[in-house]
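Subject: design request, 159 residues
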């Protein structure tokens, strides 16, 4: 397997493999490609512990690093997943939130490992790209939501 020139590295306390397997099960075009064990003891683990996991999320190559508690996740980094309809939006949102995650606002949620996700229906992205009054109406509607309501965004675009 060819190593990608640019790979996103996501820091986990100790559950990179579990997170990667959850993402692979949840999102299309997602896989766990390899699990690498530590060749010797390191500050947050022992020889033989899972150190890194090569995985893909929706076609994007990633490395999960079990680095311990020195750093934490923040909303400054998120995966943004474009959805085609409410059913797909609900499926991803419910998978993340229902697996120990938490809701936020404006289509954002966190998985149980603290990684932020934006579950973003394409209708919202299209409304924002349209600009002007249509974008403002869609934006104003979104600001009142946690999970994005596709029908409400579509209604805001038309009004």
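Subject: RE: design request

Done. Sequence follows.
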């Amino acid at each position: 397997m060819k190593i990608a020139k640019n790979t996103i590295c996501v820091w986990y306390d100790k559950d990179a493999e579990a997170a990667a397997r959850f993402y692979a099960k949840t999102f299309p075009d997602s896989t766990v490609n390899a699990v690498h064990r530590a060749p010797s003891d390191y500050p947050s683990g022992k020889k033989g512990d899972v150190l890194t996991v090569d995985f893909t999320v929706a076609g994007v190559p990633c490395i999960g690093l079990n680095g311990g508690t020195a750093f934490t996740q923040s909303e400054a980094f998120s995966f943004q997943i474009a959805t085609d309809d409410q059913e797909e939006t609900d499926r991803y949102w419910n998978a993340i939130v229902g697996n120990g995650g938490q809701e936020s606002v404006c289509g954002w949620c966190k998985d149980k490992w603290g990684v932020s996700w934006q579950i973003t229906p394409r209708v919202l992205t299209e409304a924002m790209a349209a600009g002007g009054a249509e974008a403002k109406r869609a934006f104003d509607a979104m600001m009142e939501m946690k999970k994005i309501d596709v029908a409400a965004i579509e209604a805001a675009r038309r009004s």
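DSSP finds five helices and eight strands in the chain.
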